[in-house]
Amino acid sequence: MKRRSFIKSVTALGTTSMLPLPGFSLVEKPKFKLGLQLFTIHEEMMKDAIASLRAAKAMGYQDFEIFGFDEKKGTCYGYKSSQFGRILDDLGLTVSSGHFGFSPYLDQSDEVLKRFVDQCISGARALNMKYITWPWLAPDQRSLDHFKLLANKLNIIGEQVAAAGLGFAYHNHDFEFIDYNGENGFDIILNETDPALVKIEMDIYWVVRASRYAPSELVSRQPGRYALWHIKDMDKTTNDYTELGNGAINYAEVLPDPIASGLEFFYLEQGGNYTHSAMKSMADSAAYFKKHLQKYL
């Protein structure tokens, strides 16, 4: 059986078991920690990671997704991964996912890629991380041929990461939804990768802004695959990022069913366009989430 046929068969077999039970209320659904993607406060983290984490904890954040792991030095925010792990433990915080710099390795040999993945796995284990995530593609890699190459690389990484006892995910932006004569990168990723090895970190802002599908429609196509979410709002005038509650996305209506999604972790994020400052924006977004989306906590 060809790999593509095998993947479609596995997905079809798993679909019914992943769907929520009829009448299953959100009260009975699993709850989640309030998560923050640390890219949002990257400058603050690089200046004083401990103070920034304490401030984020005071806002209500309990779990984090890292950005900026230095695989050559084995460091996070200037600390050795093991040291950073102890800092998190001391503060009673967790890191469940990390964005790692995979893009430069897309055109490298599988052997070079696997060595890099080994370094990512070492860093992830030091932080007791659950997921390693591919976050981005360079502009010159955004073509159909590169997306097909990417799907192959994602399968290779997913198999290696799974063998290490960790999960692997791909994070979308808008460019995956660009149409190339009826094809797009997002569909290639979904259809050409093994759902058991490659999960999706759905950036809901980019899905709303760039996809013709609602988040719930994407989930219905492959239930159980969207293990991680990114949540940020969209400015009503510019479509840029903004704080939760300031923008055009009604998250009370937009968020898909977490059980159907296969959700394990979600992270609030804002990559810029702060009304005041990154820290104030994340405080405002946390307050909005706790007030209006409390059922997810």
The CATH superfamily name is Divalent-metal-dependent TIM barrel enzymes
Radius of gyration: 19 Å
Tally of discrete structural domains:
1
Helix coverage percent? 40-55%
End-to-end distance, in Å? Answer: 43 Å
Largest sheet: 8 strands, parallel
Residue fraction in strands? 5-15%
How many strand units? 12
User: What is the C-level CATH assignment?
Assistant: Alpha Beta
Would you identify the CATH architecture?
Answer: Alpha-Beta Barrel
Structural class: alpha/beta
**What ranges have pLDDT less than 50 throughout 5 or more consecutive residues?**
1-27
Cross-sheet strand order for the largest sheet: 1-2-5-6-7-8-9-12
The run of helices and strands is HEHHEEEHEHEHEHEHHEEEHHEH
Mean pLDDT: 92
Oligomer: single chain
Tell me the overall shape: globular
Structural write-up:
Helix 3 (49-59) packs parallel to helix 12 (278-292), helix 5 (110-126) packs across helix 6 (144-163) and helix 6 (144-163) packs parallel to helix 7. This protein has one domain: TIM Barrel (Alpha-Beta Barrel). It is 42% helix and 15% strand. The protein has helices spanning 3-18, 42-47, 49-59, 81-91, 110-126, 144-163, 185-192, 204-210, 215-221, 251-254, 258-261, 278-292; strands at residues 35-37, 63-67, 75-76, 79-80, 94-99, 131-134, 167-171, 199-203, 228-231, 233-234, 241-242, 265-268. GO terms for molecular function: isomerase activity.
